[in-house]
User: Fold this.
Amino acid sequence: MFNYSRHFIMKKTILAVVTTSLFAASANAAVVYDKDGQQVGVYGELRYVAGQKANDANGDAENFGGTGRARFGFDGKQATGYNDVALISKLEWEVSSENDNADEANKDQFESRYAWLGADFANGVQATVGEVQSPFAELSDVTDTYNTYSGLIENQFDDIWDDSAKVTYAADGWDLRAAYSFDDAAKANNEDTKAQYKYSAAAGYTIQIDEVSSLKPVIAYQEADGETAGVDYKDSQYAAGLGYSYDAFYLATTYGQVKHDTDTTDATKDTVWAVTTSYKVLPEWTLVAGYGLVDPHNYGEETEKYYVLGTQYDITAKAKAFAEYKINDIAGQDDNYVVGLQYNF
Assistant:
């Protein structure tokens, strides 16, 4: 006779093991629901910065002022009981006060950042659909390591993609990502600009040199195809990055090219280069420095170049204060600076 009670106990045990291992990947989320193989985690971020953060169209630094933002989200996981496969999901929103990461029309409004669902196959493979992070972010993350003036140029496309299917693999030192976006929101027949599709792929591998040092090379490519006023266009970007860590020291660089091509004009090209370094001088104090370059090849724009110096103080494991100064090495552009506080939960 089939033992239903034993089968039920075994199934619940399997579900518990699967969800525990899955939710370890979302360590920053606080588990608010955990029952019968289902888990829901909540997380968030509050940030406020003040200073002369950016310049106007004439290159003059904006007046001293402050801006703030809040982000919050939910991670969901549900074990299926089938070969350790679990359903996964993420919802995240942002609301910005004044003009921080928002234009004037959208300030003080909730904006979706991530909205996806999919499956975790418990072998390093995840497949998701919805509003996802671009695979190119793996390349950007090599040098996007501090707070405000970090990650400004590495990714010349959008970081978050709507209407996308994404597959990732993370195991044995490998980090592989690929995504395809249908961009259906920009395909209306009565619009002059139509985004047909875009896709991206990235590959990285972490080499553990010894107990305190590691090396991670990354390569990435992305492409967007569409139409503007009846003219077909193709935007593409490729890059390679390398990050090296030794105990409290980190040094990284990314280098690549972005290209815009149409049926009627010659392609325009930019070289994009970023360098980041940081050193934790004390358990709470970190010094950071950065360099960024966008160099046009064959059209009349001026080279954009900047340097960044900064510091960060970890108040707790999830709260920090920071200050950064950005030197704009381009004619007619003032320098910028910010001080800020951030709390994660």
About this structure: The CA atoms of residues 295 and 303 lie 5 Å apart. The two ends are 50 Å apart (CA to CA). DSSP finds two helices and 18 strands in the chain. The chain has one domain: 4-344.
